[in-house]
Amino acid sequence: MRQAGRYMHEYRAVRKRVSFLELCKTPEIACEVTMQPMNEFGFDAAILFCDILIPLEKMGLHLEFTPAPIIDNPVRDRAAIEKLVVPDPEAEMPYVYEAIRHIRRALGDTAPLIGFAGAPFTLATYAVEGAGSKNYPYTKTLLYSAPDAAHLLLEKLAQCCATYLEAQVRAGAQCLQIFDSWAGILSPRDFNEFALGYANRVIQLLHDSPTWKESPVPIIYFANGCAPYIDLLKTCKADVLGVDWRVDIGPVFDQLGSKFALQGNIDPTCLFMPEEGLRERIKEVLDGVGNRPGHIFNLGHGILPNTDRERVRFLVNTVRELSAR
Ligand code: CP3
């Protein structure tokens, strides 16, 4: 998760030349940055370099990165939400699809490419707050005092995500990941209605799309802070569930492993531990999974910028060594 980025000096060198938005919109450079961690650490899969917020710009929101994202015209009422447009992704964001074609050529047969999008609820938090937040006051006010407007926003975002992702598969993405990074701020009931409900809507639209008949691909749903919702996740239409580190993965396998593959779930700050401690934590996750099939080892959330790349290399090698048993 976030395998490319500021913890790599090669990435920081590219960012001296171009802004983050320029990077996301220049296919050759997005490809170069996607390949940096692949060439250095040899991960089993590559993930497109882009950002979940890129499609919001084409819906009518003014997006900037400082590097934290900021939107100076957030939507907080029905009138503003009605003005948002669902873009034609290939016409409006050709750079995303061009980047995917470049990356597929660069990868050849060495590893598959994961495409991605933000889940409707997580995109809604940025569209409504206008930035990251601690308590999400504007988002929750919209959900609770204008639920019809909230549903309209989530439906527009679901349609945007589905067409955006469908075109990624047409361009060559071999798997899709839907990031619901802020789903964990919701009560179980609200999670079910506003987060999982609309992630499922995206997945249903994909399953019903013309592209799916010819080239279906696996879909990963990652809800950060998913521990309170494990039971609700049984109704998720994804093939794989991403699991963050706040829950032990063994019991989650017992509850969900017959329906889903699971991805996760080491705490990314374990990469700050000395090697012996990190090895112990990796072993704990692998022992928790045991011999059950359908596990993708991953971090429980994105890698942090001040991570030592040598720990990343150690993690990859240790996972390979310990799971070869
Ligand atoms: O995984 C990868 O290597 C692919 C690239 C990727 C980025 N963002 C690059 C990025 C992916 C998959 C994302 C997804 C994303 N973006 C999420 C979902 C995953 C998660 O972490 O929960 C979210 C919530 C965002 C929104 C976003 N973009 C934030 C909050 C920030 C600021 C982060 C910070 O630490 O300051 C960004 C910017 C961003 N996206 C950077 C990168 C490498 C840093 C920008 C820079 O180079 O200055």
Provide a short characterization of the protein structure:
The chain is of the alpha/beta class and 325 residues long. Helices cover 51% and strands 12% of the residues.
Task: Tell me what the structure shows.
By secondary structure, this protein is of the alpha/beta class. The protein has a single domain (9-242), classed as TIM Barrel, CATH 3.20.20.210. The protein contains 15 helices and nine strands. The protein has a seven-stranded parallel sheet. A two-stranded antiparallel sheet has the order 2-3. Strand 2 (63-65) and strand 3 (69-71) form a beta hairpin. Helix 8 crosses helix 10 (147-171) and helix 9 crosses helix 10. The two termini are 25 Å apart. 42% of the residues are buried. The model has no long low-confidence stretch (mean pLDDT 97). Coproporphyrinogen III is lined by residues 1-6, 15, 20, 47, 49, 51-53, 65, 67-69, 116, 132, 179, 181, 224, 302.
For the termini, the CA-CA separation is: 25 Å
Nearest-integer average pLDDT = 97
Unreliable stretches: none
CATH class: Alpha Beta
Helix percentage range: 40-55%
Bound heterogens, unique: coproporphyrinogen III
Can you tell me the overall shape?
globular
The total of helices stands at 15
Largest sheet: 7 strands, parallel
Taken in chain order, the helices and strands follow as HHHEHEEHHHEHHHEHHEEHEHEH
**What is CATH's topology name?**
TIM Barrel
CATH architecture name: Alpha-Beta Barrel
Counting structural domains, the number is 1
| Percentage of β-strand residues | 5-15%
Strand numbers in spatial order across the main sheet: 1-4-5-6-7-8-9
Number of strands: 9
Rg (CA only): 19 Å
- Overall structural class, as computed from helix and strand content, comes to alpha/beta
